[in-house]
Protein 1
Amino acid sequence: MPTLTRPRNDPAQYDDLADEWWRPRGAFCALHWLAEARAGVVPNASRPGAVLLDVACGGGLLAPHVAAKGYRHVGIDIGVAAPAVARAHGVTVVRGDALWLPIADESVDVVVAGEILEHVREPDRLVAEAARVLRPGGTFVCDSLADTRLCKFAMVTVGERLRLAPPGIHDPDLFVAPRAIADACRSRGIDLTVRGLRPHVCDGLAWLARRRDHVRMVPTRLTNVVWQGYGVKAPG
């Protein structure tokens, strides 16, 4: 994995690492694990032409996990190189800012915001934009890193040393409390269910021993490291 020299949380890092998106055991290996867990709470499409909006889609890692669910998979990403990678994996990508989605009101059936809330300085605005574009009865799915000392130690101090995340990819000052996102969702008509995610222990040990490339993420009641939220926007 290349050593990064840009400031922490600089979005250009994702362009620097464009060749890493789909490389086994590459810089974004943990994002593959989370993409699978994220897709697990995405419902099957309930109507022809249903749209899933993948906010900050990166290299399109969600694509294989939702391909059979019946959606048109549309991605939004601010990057330059990552959208090209996502398109190669079947995602229709629009270049844009997660805080100013170039999408019409109430026009999508599912909004997925995976591993993006901890990269923006206004996560409440991201939630507001997701609620704006989501149809009544549509599903919002998100996951992020908790604003706790344990998470900052696990994901930055330890995670970067183990190469679970590229050095400098996160700014721990931007990590997000799940309660804050749940409150932001509730104020916009989305009742968010929150749970923690952790690596499957046996898978994680096999990954460390280089006997396995993929690690399953399993639910946990503890939300103080990685957490996931999912909820439905109220009708009307």
Protein 2
Amino acid sequence: MMRTLIVEDEPLARDQLRTCIAMRDDLDLLGEAEDGTNAIRLVDELSPDLLLLDIALPECSGLNVLRSIRQRPAVVFTTAYDCYALTAFELGAFDYLLKPFGPDRFNKAIDRVMDRLPHKDSDPPIEDRLGTISEDQFLDRFFVRHLGRTLPVQTVDITRFEAEDDYTAVHVAGKKYLIHVSMRELERRLDPKVFLRVHRSVILNISHVRSAVQRDRRFLIHMDDGSEVMTSRTRTHLIHGLRL
């Protein structure tokens, strides 16, 4: 049984989480908090294994809750705003739930927690990552999951981001990692002097561009990892200003 604490200020979302927890035999609900201050108290008093944590909370944000608690439970963020999804990956959270969500999405998140728990102690401490998080700064790194481990990825090493169904594929050092973050949110947090969105589904790191050949009203871009990307016609003008 995974001892679970809900931290959520919206009554409907708390009801939804409570219902989803009751449907699983491997979760034990310890309690609920409606604000950050009570969340800190309950986490340190009850020592939950899993924290279902809203990021936007009264009195004290979810990130400040994590900065303040002494216990280190597994964390699944809940949020009504997909702009916080990347924050979850910067911190290496086990998962995040975008409200409103259903039982299927909740169960996927809990299954991911269960898969990762045996490796939790080998992950970088979440408190070490909190100091690097700032919505006002461009993204320098974030964390991905690979073979049961949490790995840091430096954005300078990323060749490109590419939309892939409901995920975004991160291409780095010849490997591909999938993250559940929108291209729009990634573009917002990436340095525009380094990353260029050349297609609705592709963001390139221009420092990894080897050459660009114009074809009709588009460019075929050759990357230094051997991959090729075709720009969209509406974004071809962005390539003309690059010094390759």
Protein 3
Amino acid sequence: MKVSIITDVLNAKDTIGDAIRSVLTQTYKNIEYLVVDGRSTDGTIEVINKYQDRIAKIVSEPDGNHFEAMNKGLTLATGDIIAYLHADDVFASEKVIEKVISVFERTDVDCVWGDLVYVSSKNPNRVVRYWKSCAYRDNLFALGWMPPHPTFFVKKSVYEKYGYFKTNLPISADYELMLRFLHKHNISGYYLPEVLVRMRTGGLSNKSIRNIIQKSIEDYRAWKTNDEGCAIITIAMKNIQKVPQLFTR
């Protein structure tokens, strides 16, 4: 199986090198790596170009938003499996892709996800939050659950059948996509119970109170798009679900 890994980036020269090396050191070798840069101005593209002979495709042009860049990478990808590694993130080990592909080959599911840890932006070795996921069951989304999107590996055929990220949801398009795939269309999935990605703190959705409110509004819109049930309680539960992550190590 070929895996397409897409990194979207805008002005992240201090972290993009770590993300790139995290992909290039994977033990699984059938990887197509694509980097979509939003026309960075801080030296990011110069860092990327140091690895250009090992990156299948580099695009550097303005994007409308984060998810437009992710869709752009998706249209260019030719792999059987699609994965995203953002510019501030790294895979938890060099064997992550090998383990994930083993699951796809053994089970023939449509998607695989695992656990994620948030690490300090100043000290990536310090874990500040542990997002432990679980296997999916019907209506689990209604209880506020979602898998960590950076650990979400999906067959490209699923995107082709059910659609890409909705760019009119600039914060919650990843949530809407997983809700659409797993809850609405019931694609098959497998939970791999180990940490797959280490994410630096400071992401867009939790950057400020304003962003948290905007994210909740977009989450509500995601539900109204994919399910006629009441979403208000679900959105509250989704935020409450994050609290135990602060105390899990």
Protein 4
Amino acid sequence: MRGPDDAIRERMRQIARERPRWGRRYIQDRLRREGFRINHKKTERLYREEGVSLRLRKRGKIPRVYRMPLAAPTRPNQQWSMDFIHNQWCSGRRVKVFTLGDDYTQELLALEVDTSISGAMVAEFLERVAHERGYPAVVRLDNGPEFTGKALDIWATQHQVRFDFIDPGKPMQNAFREGFQSRLRDECLNQQ
């Protein structure tokens, strides 16, 4: 004997097979558009009973590790920091802005704008600034592909400069750069 909800159940299973990333709400909307009279409570019950629930990926637990506080620089040229700002012109063309600064004096050492900036270009910028000011002891940066490549690694090894990579997803560890970049974006890039 067929139950009154068998047609709804069958169609719900078909939709779930066709669209595996759709959740209960999308399936309910599709059923209503197809003429089934069904409210959200009934949809939820049948959805659970049929076992077509959206499979959510569980995030792996990150082990807690005691982190040492970041040391603030005590003299000029001790620690530089660098980062990129990504923006887009009115024409839709993307642009990258490279910023480099001294964390002690908080002065901007380099500001380079181009549509594409590679790791080799970053090494050239650093060399140009170091030629005028001397080499820093440490450069703080994020884990972007331009910064983790071979060109910058070779530059750092040649000049005994240590790279201090921030933890992924922790921009506050590069606070001087992030603060400057927010002002640059607010006062310059967003105004143009």
